[in-house]
Structure formats: C-alpha cells, structure tokens
Amino acid sequence: MSSKAKQFRWALIAIAVILGALHAWAYRHAMNPDGISYLDIGEDFWNGNLGAIVNAHWSPLYPVILGLALKIFSPSPYWEFALAHGVNFLIFLFGLFAFDFFLRQVIATDEQKNQQESFPKWVWLGLGYGIFLITSLNFITLAALTPDMLVSGFLYLALGLLLKIRRLGERKAYLLLGVVLGISYLARAPMFLLAPLFIAESAFLGTERKKNTLNAALAFAIFLAVSMPFVAVLSAQKGHFTFSESGRLNYAWHINKSVPYIGWLEGPHSPKQIFHNPNMFAFREPIRSTYPLWRDPAYWNEKVPVHLDLQGHLTAIKQGVHEISFITRRYLLPVAAAFLLLFLLGKVPAKKLLESWPLLVPVLVGIGMYALVYTASRYIAPFITALWLGLFLGLAREKIEKFQLPIFLMAIVLLWSIISFTNASEARLAAKTLRCGEACTPHHDWVVAETLREAGIKKGSRVGVIGHYFGAFGAYWARLARVQIVAEIPQGPLEQFWGKDKKTRREVIAAFGQAGAEAVVAEIVGNDIPPSVGTDGWRKVENTNWYYLLLKEPNTLVAR
C-alpha cells in the first residue's frame, strides 16, 4: 500500500474513531431492556456467582466484559450507564480493527486476482469504511447495550481469515479461524450454526485439498474446544443438549406468534397471575434481578410450544426483504447504484461474479438464517457490509475501466455525504453537552432512582410497575436504584388500570403489596393524565413519565 493510500486509510480510521466517540458520548445515558439483563448478569458473575452467565437466552461474553468494567471502576449510579457505553466504544474500536483487517484482505485478494486491473485502493477504502460506518453506527449503534458490535468484529475477522486462507493457505490462519469462531459463539449463539459452514468452506480454498482438509479439521477441533465447555454446562443445566434456547423462543415469538414476550402462563416456571382485568403478574422468586422476567426469558418460557409454520416463514422473509430494502434505499443507494451501473456496463457474466463465493456464501447464508425467523437490522448489518464488498470484488474489470473512476468517485462522495448528514445530530448533541454540561441532557432514569431513594426506597427493595408505553421493559431506573421489580401490569392502554373504578384500583394496589412490593411505579406517556393520579395520592417524578406510590404510607389506597 502506497504512502498516500496509507495516509488516506489512517484518516478514515481517525474519522471512524471520532464518530464512534461522539455516538458513545451522545448516548451515554441511553439504555435498553437487553442492556439491563447484561449488566445484571455481568455484575453477578464478578461478584462471585459464576453460574450467572449460564443462561439459555443471553450469551456470556458480553455481560462478562460489562461486569469486568463495573468491577474495576465501581461507578456511581449516575455514571453506570455511561461506563457501559464506554465499554461499547472500546468494542467499536475492536470492530473497527477487525473490519480494517477484513478490508485489507479484500484489497489483497483483488490485487492477486486482477493484478493490473484491480481497483485503486482509495476506491476500496472510501467505499469500505463508508459502508462500515453506516452499518455500525446507524444500525448496530453504540446507543444500545447489545453484543452485536462484538459479533460484527468476530465476523469480519472470520471473513478476513477465509480470504487470507484462499490467498496463502497458512495453517496459522486456519487455527485462528477456529479460535475466532469459538469465541464468536460465546458472543452470540447463532454463530454456533454458522461456524461449521465457515470451516467447511475453508477446506475448499486453495489447491492442496488434503492439506486444507487437515487444517480445516484442526480449526474445527479448536472451535469445539472453545465452544463446547459452555455448551456442556448449559446442556447440563437444561437437562438436554442445547447450545441456546433463544432460537426456540424467537420462533415462538416471531413465527408462531403463539406467546407474548412476557406473561405466558402455561409453562412449568410461568409467572403467577395475581389479578385479572387488569392482568397482573408476580415473579418474586426464584430469580432475583432488576427485572426477573427478562433476566432469563428461557426459564419463564421453558417448554414453550413451537410448530412448523410456513406462512410465518413467508411473513418473516417479507419482513427481511423490507428491512434490507430500507437499508439500501435510505443509506446505501449510492453504493447500489454504482454496482448496478458497473455490472451493466461491464456485462458481467454470472460465473465471474461467483468468483467471490468465499465471501458471498457465508454472508448470504447468514442473512438467510435471520430472514427465516426475524431480521433485525443490527443482526444483519455486518453481513450487509461484507455482501457489498464481495459483490464489487466479483465485478469484471475489462470493460469498465473508462467508466469506473467517475462512478466510484460520485458514489463515495454521496455515501460520505449521507454519513455526514446522519451523524450531524450526534455531533450537535455531543457539542452541546460539552458546552453546557450535564444539564443539557438530563439523566431521567437516575432522577427516578434518586427520587425513590429520597422517598425511602432503599437498595434491595421490591417494587411493582404499572405499564403504559414500555412498562417494566423501560424501567431502567430500577437498575440504578438497585431495586427488584416483583410484579407488573404489562405495557398497554392507560385504561387498563386508570380506567377502573376506585375499588378495583385499591384491590390492584393491595395485590402489589401482597406480592412484596414496597412501592408501585407507574408509567404515563403523553399529556392525558388520569384524574385518579392526583386523588389516589400518586406523586410525579419531575421531568419524567413516571409516578410513584409508597405502600407503607398511611395516605395510600392500601391503608384506606
């Protein structure tokens, strides 16, 4: 790589680091339901409960990393979420390093295959880093605490190693492939299904078939050595072989649509329904966590029924096509247009395009795996990045030489214009915060936690939640207050509780108390505040959508 290309590459890396840091800072107080579970699991693990990471729904690697950060820095409740986003930023840097390795393998493959007709390095760098930033910052995001950025890094490493194996056939690359795939499973369970495909494919790369097969067998043995200990422990916990129960749950949720996320009452461990109309569930035992129902969904939904549903799959595939179409139309249209123009101008035969099969096969299988059940943009984001680079790698070069540079230049300018536009809000928010401090971005979850603490709700207390828009899924303040939600009325219309007569409301509050709650916290989104909020003694947490009622006070409905 020439000195100018290296300078361009480092400039793009610097831009990526700056944008990642802006996102991490702008969303430092953001939270999501999965993030609460990961924080709880990680904290429990580093506090000595090693079995906390043996969870059939949540993979272990990400919570272990989060928990380590909590253990080392012991942040105050106010800064806990910010620390977690700092960890996300470090994981983004890992993903950036992994993508850089992958992109360099793409460039090296292009040079080896096409020699003098290979695309200029600035084309690969401009397109590659542009697509990476869009898929990483806009779809995986640093705002959500999920392992998706971690998984994307391992995926880029695995794809890069496949290309390196194809070029050089080094045994070391095979061994690293086994390690990377084994760890990737610990980051997200579906990689357990994709790993054998990667390793099987590696056996067909290169000309020395016998040697490649032996190296692939070694890679598979390493993959098993890394992944199977966790599989064994998880299987022992569940009483049958399993590498994860998340696939079964997602099938029930998204294909059969037979059970809700919470509140399935027909399983051996289902939460107890303690009130009807409104529906109210209690789950004080046996899991003790911020929100036990989401700490281990596989436990509460054990033996959830699933059945083959072809119509459900067709609906899921349509949803997946729509998701990919949205990503392409909204963010990657310049990339798609450039590829289509060069494909048509070059009259590329299918055989030529399929020369990129080492990239295209695992990428398309990965996208298809999710599309059959549920396509979330954050799941398929790294596959989309690799797909476009693989398609460009397969273009025939002979007939497009005089067209390619202006087309690429226009595509890269438009692509980076989209990046500038879509990252402007994070830049403005970060700049505003740096200028006027924390007052610009109030930490609402901390405000709720502090209000409850000042009202006498101490660490370890139990609370109930009355949902509206997001309910207990959005009760992130409970994590900061170190309280446990033990009962809830799930998210739903305001009328499900506030529209009832006073006697029913009194009975509901009494049921919360019988479930062990010391306070009830209700979510009311919008300006239509029910009159009974004031008459029943509820207090508003300033500048939030949350109201609380202490069950120990003589002026609550319980005492009347």
Describe the protein in words:
By secondary structure, this protein is mainly alpha-helical. The chain contains 24 helices and seven strands. It has helices at 3-26, 33-46, 61-73, 77-114, 121-140, 148-168, 171-187, 191-202, 209-238, 246-256, 292-295, 297-300, 310-330, 333-346, 350-353, 357-371, 377-393, 401-422, 424-436, 444-454, 477-481, 495-498, 502-514, 532-535; strands at 272-275, 280-282, 462-466, 484-489, 519-523, 539-540, 546-550. A seven-stranded mixed β-sheet has the order 1-2-4-3-5-7-6, with helices on one face. A hairpin with a 4-residue loop joins strand 1 (272-275) and strand 2 (280-282). Helix 4 packs parallel to helix 6, helix 6 packs antiparallel against helix 7 and helix 14 (333-346) packs antiparallel against helix 18 (401-422). The N and C termini lie far apart (79 Å). The model has no long low-confidence stretch (mean pLDDT 93).
What does the secondary structure layout of this molecule look like, with pairings?
Elements (H helix, E strand, L loop, with lengths): L2 H24 L6 H14 L14 H13 L3 H38 L6 H20 L7 H21 L2 H17 L3 H12 L6 H30 L7 H11 L15 E4 L4 E3 L9 H4 L1 H4 L9 H21 L2 H14 L3 H4 L3 H15 L5 H17 L7 H22 L1 H13 L7 H11 L7 E5 L10 H5 L2 E6 L5 H4 L3 H13 L4 E5 L8 H4 L3 E2 L5 E5 L10
Parallel strand pairs: 3-4, 3-5
Antiparallel strand pairs: 1-2, 2-4, 5-7, 6-7
